[in-house]
């Protein structure tokens, strides 16, 4: 239970930032600590378990404050959304069981998001904040998106999170419409204009704190107006980013990567309208913990349009008009609908792959890489991984599998669990892992150095064949280069022996794509193996890692030479 002491905007769980990550983290907690008291020792033990898992990525020092880090992962998303109960001891709720073990985790997540409310017995405003909160945040932001058709990241960041009371919905609409009008006529650049508005709105929200010079910021010893405003703005960005990601998993919304906006998925408008018409906007059981938990933990509420047999039959017919639904109960209808959606997605993906293999996406692939370099997309890391998958699919044969989640129409939705390579290229006689990152410097080495090698070891064990790796980044850090240079020369059983990881700059990788497009023939897996063999030979021809890296770039940039 917690008190909201200094936040005057909507707040959403940002830990974990992506909801898919809650599933393995909750499962780890329940499998190891269910029935335990949730106190500091248990929290520390959980975090120690967590950092040993492949799916968890953190650069935080284990010894800094493991109990605090554990609370950050558990007390927010998992507890606030009702998937676990921490009092009197750790237990998995019925809603949590649906989220972890059902075939429709996105449906379980949606129901809980629609029940998340401010205030609640879990979160109440301090006396200083008064009665600022009275809403169900996800419900009201969904209503806002539906009203406008689509809303930009900045519009939610600046205005949407001010919707702390649903009775001020019309006021927020007026603010966004005014923002759009002024944006259309301003002579300033958009960055200048939106930055000024963001600063003005933030100052207005926290005018009392600024007037009284109450600059206290969580986990900071710096007390200044600049630091205070900077923190509040960053919080707004984090809340908005998490909101996009949580809505994405429900399937109700679609994100425009280039437009940095979120809208209702075109085939889910009726589902959204049903929610907006039927879900009560008022918070419930604010002062009654037992009744609130009974309501929150119920996996069947609120009702969704897909709980109705006639609606499901219609959705099924929209996908396959010849599919017979006669005699099916609601559970069977849901399974049938899921199967048809999966089949449709696979067909769409297969059709896209055929187009990519025919080189018809070449110019778009190169352009997307250019836009990623300029950081033009909402989720540049996701787009980098997806576009690299497209590039590898295009340049040579083999089965190219991306460790991505795709939406119903074959578009990139989110990155998947981090316990295997970003992309796995199966060329029959050997495997080529492809790992991509936009990180640079020490952070690149900390987050990518060991996992990349570990993924090779896992793939070798799984496939019982040679596994190599192509590592692509806009700039490969010196520490990463040194690490990979070392690994190709040392036998490490955990990595399946010597690990050949080929570090390549994004510009060199694009040259590799261009050569594939210009070639008078279709590259085949043996061209990849010839490149690998040439790079393997370099270790006996260089004096250090820097010379090795430079020669690797030359080899990759001319990979189709005779």
From TrEMBL:
Which keywords, in A-to-Z order, does the entry hold? Answer: Endonuclease, Hydrolase, Nuclease
Q: What is this protein called?
A: AlwI family type II restriction endonuclease
Q: Give the originating organism.
A: Gordonibacter faecis
Q: Which Pfam families match?
A: RE_AlwI
Q: EC number(s)?
A: 3.1.21.-
- Decide whether keyword Ubl conjugation is in the record: no
Any GO molecular function: endonuclease activity
- What EC class is this? hydrolase
InterPro entries reported for this sequence? Restrct_endonuc_II_AlwI
Domain of life of the organism in this record?
Answer: Bacteria
């Amino acid at each position: 239970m917690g008190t909201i002491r200094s936040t005057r905007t909507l707040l959403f769980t940002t830990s974990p930032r992506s909801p898919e990550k809650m599933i393995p983290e909750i499962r780890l907690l329940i499998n190891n600590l269910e029935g335990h008291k949730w106190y500091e020792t248990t929290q520390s033990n959980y975090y120690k378990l967590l950092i040993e898992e492949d799916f968890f990525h953190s650069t935080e020092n284990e010894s800094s404050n493991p109990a605090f880090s554990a609370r950050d992962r558990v007390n927010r998303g998992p507890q606030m959304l009702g998937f676990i109960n921490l009092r009197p001891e750790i237990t998995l709720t019925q809603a949590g069981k649906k989220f972890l073990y059902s075939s429709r985790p996105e449906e379980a997540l949606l129901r809980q998001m629609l029940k998340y409310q401010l205030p609640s017995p879990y979160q109440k405003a301090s006396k200083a904040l008064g009665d600022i909160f009275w809403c169900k945040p996800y419900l009201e932001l969904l209503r806002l998106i539906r009203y406008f058709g689509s809303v930009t990241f900045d519009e939610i960041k600046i205005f949407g999170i001010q919707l702390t009371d649903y009775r001020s919905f019309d006021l927020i609409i007026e603010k966004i419409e005014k923002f759009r009008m002024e944006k259309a006529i301003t002579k300033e650049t958009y960055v200048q204009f939106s930055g000024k508005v963001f600063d003005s709105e933030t100052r207005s929200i926290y005018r009392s704190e600024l007037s009284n010079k109450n600059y206290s910021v969580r986990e900071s010893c710096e007390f200044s107006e600049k630091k205070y405003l900077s923190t509040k703005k960053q919080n707004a960005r984090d809340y908005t980013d998490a909101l996009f990601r949580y809505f994405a998993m429900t399937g109700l919304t679609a994100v425009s990567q280039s437009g940095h906006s979120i809208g209702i998925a075109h085939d889910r408008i009726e589902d959204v309208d049903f929610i907006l018409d039927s879900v009560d906007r008022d918070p419930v059981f604010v002062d009654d913990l037992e009744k609130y938990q009974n309501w929150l933990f119920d996996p069947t509420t609120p009702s969704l349009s897909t709980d109705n047999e006639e609606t499901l039959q219609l959705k099924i017919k929209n996908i396959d008009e010849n599919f017979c639904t006669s005699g099916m109960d609601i559970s069977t209808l849901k399974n049938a609908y899921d199967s048809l959606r999966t089949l449709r997605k696979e067909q769409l993906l297969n059709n896209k792959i055929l187009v990519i293999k025919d080189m018809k996406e070449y110019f778009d692939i190169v352009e997307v890489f250019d836009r990623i370099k300029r950081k033009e997309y909402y989720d540049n890391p996701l787009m980098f991984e997806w576009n690299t998958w497209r590039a590898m699919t295009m340049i040579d044969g083999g089965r190219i599998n991306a460790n991505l989640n795709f939406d119903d129409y074959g578009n990139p939705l989110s990155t998947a669990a981090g316990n295997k390579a970003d992309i796995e290229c199966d060329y029959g006689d050997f495997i080529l892992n492809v790992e991509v990152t936009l990180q640079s410097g020490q952070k690149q080495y900390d987050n990518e150095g060991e996992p990349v090698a570990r993924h090779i070891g896992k793939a070798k064990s799984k496939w019982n064949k040679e596994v190599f790796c192509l590592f692509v980044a806009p700039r490969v850090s010196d520490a990463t280069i040194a690490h990979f240079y070392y690994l190709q020369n040392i036998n490490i059983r955990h990595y399946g022996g010597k690990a050949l990881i080929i570090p390549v700059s994004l510009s060199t990788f694009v040259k590799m794509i261009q050569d594939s497009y210009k070639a008078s023939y279709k590259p085949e897996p043996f061209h990849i193996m010839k490149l690998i063999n040439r790079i393997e030979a370099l270790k006996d021809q260089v004096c250090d890692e820097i010379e090795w890296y430079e020669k690797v770039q030359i080899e990759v940039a001319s990979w189709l030479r005779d």
